[in-house]
Each structure stands twice: as structure tokens, then as C-alpha cells.
């Protein structure tokens, strides 16, 4: 696989997508999807989350999915963990990376997690401490996801100062990556430039990722804006799987297939082979029960004479 | 209506949209659509095209539509004209502006117009001469649309030098506006920045517009890229009407409703009231026979606490 990537793509459809739909994927089908997408060159997949199975039955087999995913050569296997208990399971599972979501909006944190943002930061500190106290987990990367950083369905606007405060706190605690998330699809390109300029300046050598939902059609415009100020890591979902229960017809995460097309067309190497990626998409779609999928390139095809960034070099 | 616009939007659904679908709109329904959209604050509408009715029966009533549109207070009424004959009809109709498309791709020009680019430029010169020779038309604005500027389905890539040569020629002839068109949805944000930087530098005080199709999902990303280098004029289509016969599920032009949302969210004043625009969309959709429409904001609604640029000022 190509190691000279300009942009690092993390597939989150196997977590953010699957947790939002009705269809139950079997463990075997999840693993085949992951295998095909890794084969296409996607370097990292968030394969599941360690949450109580009662809350998200789709994620009940995450430990098995991690185990199977670790067999896929060269793939970085990451999982979402919402608290210390999840992080302990995540570390024990052998996952390479834990993604810990923090709600930046006070109202959202109270409503969803029943705790203030400061308490969620304390939880994150416990996760970092758990790794420190268990040297066998020293190699596990711990990322923080700053959720609702672009706005919140309860409080509306989220002050930039709150986003930067949370970023500063996870940096001080020793985070390995910061993902800034437009959880509800409120973000716009101007806002992206502002937020990411500030976060990148604070983060120094710590990688910063963008996580966008296409709820209001601005997903790829937001990616381009973030790219322009220097972001080189993005979350996305194959076929835009996920949608939004409150917005019929609205896509979920940025569509991985369209994202790869856009980046490669712009001359940025992703290491992903678009044809193979569309084969992975086909496999995924075959196992969905009438769940909507999204994306333009799957219908339109690439432009005549299109060259991937790799070939153009 | 607000005259302090930061960005000028031209609705082209009544031309580019209607000419691409099966549904026939009556003259009365076209005029009601135009009236409602102008009422929402859209400053310019391309209400039709002066082409042979045999080729495009949908456009056979363009003279009447122009006549009716001229009654709408404050609206700039523009029409597409493909040649001198169309331009003569356009000037006689009383339209405020003629949009003359030129194919920048030699292969596309030969295939569609059966003439080389240089002959199309000669046609454009004749249109300019006709205005000069008829002082009663001195006030009519003449715009050139550089079609296939981002690529062509026949030849693939279109050299930047060809785009700039055509731009230079229409500028020398006295064009009043240049629209740079991604006719087949091949463009990407990096390409936008390159092309528009060059054209804006050549154009000086002559307004430059971007015309994007969302065929590969990059329409709004391309708008943002063009905005960033200084473009302040865009074509778009209400509900993305138009589609592409070769790309099932692919949107036509950039969706006017989503474009207005993006711009206003970024703090750029369009002068357009989004609620009223969605009422115009509703009217349009009611009169379509199962034609697909597109757009995210119509489903998702605006973010909580969303303020238009006008109010935020």
C-alpha cells in the first residue's frame, strides 16, 4: 500500500453509519466490508464502539470485529469509547486507537451524557491515566473527538472559546489526535477556516482531523475549507451511510467515495483506489435493507481523462 | 429589496433546468415561478433561451416569458442566446441581459455547434456589433459563458490556456460579464482557485460569475473555492432542477436554496429570504411530473439560532 499519503481518511461508516440505521450487519459482513475497504487502501477504520449493547445492539460484537480487523494487514483499527469502562474494553480488545467523544456544548453534554463538559474531561483524564498505569497499553493511541464544535441542536451556536478550551484541556492531558466534529451538520466553510486555524495553531505536532456530516449539503465544501488551512485527516462514511432521523433524505457523514474523488482530483494522494472502494460500497449496499445511501461519483463516474493524484505525480 | 448584496445569484432553473426535463411548464407557471423567486429577493433570473423551438419546445414561449418577467419590479431579466439570430430576438424582447455560451473545448464546439471555437468567437463579435449598430439596444448587457472550461466529456481535460484565450478575446470585444462554466461537472476546488484567479486578474472591473453543476457532488465546494479567490456571482437552479440524463441521481446546477443557505451562514448577504425561496421551490415542485429535485436544506431546515447575514450585521 502507498505510504506517501497527503491525506489520511478514516472510515466511520462501520460505526457512525451502522449505529444510525435499522439493518443489523452480521459480524462476518462487517469484517468483509472492513477487509474490502482496507484492500482499497483506506488506512484506518473505526470498526465499532464499546458502548452498552442494550443502547446500541449493532455494536454488541465490537470485540469480535476488532479481533477480526486486526488480521487485516496494514489497517489501523480504531474504536469509539464513551467512558473509562469502554476504554478499558477497547484497550483489552487490542484496537490500535480509541476515539473518545467529548461534547463541547454544555447543553448537549448535559442532555446526552447527563454531565457537564468538565466531568467529561475528567473522564478523558481517567482514560489517559489508565493507559499510563498499564504499560502494556502504552502503544494505544487515544484521540479526542470534540463533538458539537460547530453548533448544537439544543443551544444553537457553540462559542469558539468553548471549543478551544476543550482542545487545550485534552492537549494538556496528552491526547494523540484531535477530531473536530460537526456532529449535527451545522458548519459552514467560513467557520471551518476559523476553527481549524485556531486548533491547528494550538495542536502543534498533534494530528487534527475533521469530522463532517452532510446534513445541509456542505460536507465537502467544509472539507475543502479545512484542507486549505492545513487539515489533512478526515472522517467519512462509505455511501454516506447513516443519514439523520430528523432530516429525511439527508446524508450522514461525508461520503467516502466522493471524498476520495475530490481529493485525488485536487492532486492530493489518499492511497485509496476508487474502483476498489466502489466494490466495497457495492458489498455494503447488497447487505442493507432499503437503507438509503448517498454519493454522486457512484452514479456519475469519474471525468474522462481523470487521473488519480498518484498517477499524476 | 436589499441592494447591499455581497453575492449576486442568478437563477437558471427556468432555462438550464427546464430544458433538461420532460415536464412542460406553461407560460403562466413559468411566470409565477419567476415572480415568487424574485419576491424572495433573487436579483436576476435567466428566464429562457432564444433557440429554435424545434430544438427546445420548452423554450418556445421565451418572448412572452421575457415580457411578463419585465413586469416584475427590480428583477434583472436575462436570456440565453446561442447566436446572432437569437441575440436579435433577445434584444427585441426587451431582456436586460443576453448570455452567450461559447464552448472553450474545441472538440465540444465542433460536436455541438459544428464550428471551431474561433467561429463561435466571431459569432459573439457579431452580437456585440449588432448592439453597437442599434443604439436603442445600447443598454442591453451582453455576457459570455465559457462552457466546458473545467473539462469536456469528449476531450477530457481542457487546457487552461484555451480558457484564458477565450476570456481574453471576449474581453477585447467588450463583454459585460464572463461566466465560467463547469458544464459537465468535472471541476474541483483546486482547479477553481487556479482558473478564477487568472480570469479575475484579466477581467479587471468586468464581473466574473461561476456556473457549476453538482454532477459529482462538488458544486458547493467549488463555489466556496471561487468565493475565496474573489468571485461574487453564481448561477444556480432552484431545487437543483435539471439533473443529467447520463448520471441517474445526479443533480443539475448547484441548488439555489442550499447556495443561499451556505452564503448567508458564511455571513455573505445575498438579499434572498430563504423561507420565501422555499415557497417558490414548493410552487415549482407542485408543477413537476415526477422530475427529481435536490437539496439538503429543504429537508434539514436551518440550524437552530441561524441568522441570515443581513441580521447578523
What does this protein look like?
The structure is a homodimer of 313-residue chains. With 313 residues, the first copy, chain A, is of the alpha/beta class. In chain A, strands 1-2-3-4-5-6-7-8 form an 8-stranded parallel beta barrel, surrounded by 9 helices. In chain A, strand 3, helix 4 and strand 4 form a beta-alpha-beta unit. Chain A contains 13 helices and 8 strands. The two termini of chain A are 16 Å apart. Chain A has helices at residues 13-17, 27-39, 62-69, 84-93, 106-113, 117-133, 160-173, 189-203, 219-229, 256-265, 274-286, 297-300, 309-312; strands at residues 8-11, 44-49, 76-80, 97-103, 141-147, 177-182, 208-212, 233-236. The mean pLDDT of chain A is 94. The longest helix of chain A has 17 residues, at 117-133. Chain A has a single domain (8-312), classed as Alpha-Beta Barrel (TIM Barrel). Chains A and B meet through helix 8, helix 9, helix 10 and helix 12 of A and helix 8, helix 9, helix 10 and helix 12 of B.
Shape of chain A: globular
Largest sheet of chain A: 8 strands, parallel, barrel
What is the tally of helical segments of chain A? 13
> What oligomeric state best describes the polypeptide chains here?
homodimer
CATH top-level class of chain A: Alpha Beta
Query: Biggest protein-protein interface?
Result: A-B, 49 and 49 residues
Mean pLDDT of chain A: 94
CA radius of gyration of chain A:
18 Å
**How are the strands of the biggest sheet of chain A laid out side by side?**
1-2-3-4-5-6-7-8
Total strand segments of chain A: 8
Q: Spans of chain A with pLDDT under 50 lasting ≥5 residues?
A: none
Helicity of chain A, in percent?
A: 40-55%
Annotated CATH topology of chain A? TIM Barrel
Strand content of chain A: 5-15%
- The secondary-structure class of chain A comes to alpha/beta
Amino acid at each position: 500500500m502507498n505510504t506517501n499519503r497527503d491525506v489520511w481518511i478514516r472510515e466511520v461508516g462501520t460505526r457512525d453509519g451502522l449505529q444510525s440505521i435499522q439493518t443489523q450487519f452480521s459480524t462476518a459482513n462487517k469484517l468483509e466490508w472492513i477487509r474490502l475497504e482496507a484492500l482499497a487502501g483506506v488506512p484506518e477504520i473505526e470498526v465499532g464502539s464499546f458502548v452498552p449493547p442494550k443502547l446500541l445492539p449493532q455494536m454488541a460484537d465490537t470485540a469480535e470485529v476488532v479481533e477480526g480487523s486486526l488480521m487485516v494487514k496494514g489497517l489501523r483499527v480504531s474504536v469509539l469509547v464513551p467512558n473509562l469502562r469502554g476504554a478499558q474494553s477497547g484497550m483489552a480488545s487490542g484496537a490500535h486507537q480509541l476515539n473518545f467523544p467529548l461534547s463541547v456544548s454544555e447543553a448537549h453534554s448535559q442532555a446526552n451524557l447527563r454531565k457537564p463538559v468538565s466531568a467529561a474531561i475528567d473522564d478523558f483524564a481517567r482514560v489517559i491515566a489508565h493507559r499510563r498505569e498499564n504499560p502494556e497499553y502504552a502503544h494505544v493511541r487515544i484521540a479526542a473527538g470534540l463533538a458539537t464544535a460547530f453548533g448544537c441542536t439544543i443551544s444553537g451556536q457553540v462559542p469558539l472559546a468553548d471549543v478551544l478550551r476543550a482542545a487545550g484541556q485534552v492537549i494538556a492531558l496528552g491526547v494523540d489526535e484531535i477530531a473536530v466534529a460537526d456532529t449535527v451538520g451545522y458548519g459552514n466553510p467560513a467557520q471551518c477556516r476559523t476553527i481549524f486555524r485556531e486548533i491547528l495553531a494550538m495542536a502543534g505536532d498533534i494530528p487534527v482531523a475533521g469530522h463532517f456530516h452532510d446534513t445541509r449539503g456542505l460536507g465537502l465544501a467544509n472539507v475543502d475549507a479545512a484542507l486549505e488551512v492545513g487539515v489533512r485527516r478526515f472522517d467519512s462514511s462509505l455511501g454516506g451511510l447513516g443519514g439523520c432521523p430528523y432530516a429525511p433524505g439527508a446524508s450522514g457523514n461525508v461520503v467516502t467515495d466522493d471524498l476520495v474523488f475530490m481529493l485525488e482530483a485536487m492532486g492530493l494522494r489518499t492511497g485509496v483506489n476508487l474502483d476498489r472502494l466502489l466494490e466495497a460500497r457495492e458489498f455494503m449496499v447488497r447487505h442493507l435493507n432499503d437503507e438509503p445511501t448517498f454519493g454522486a461519483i457512484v452514479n456519475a463516474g469519474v471525468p474522462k481523462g481523470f487521473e488519480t493524484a498518484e498517477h499524476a505525480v
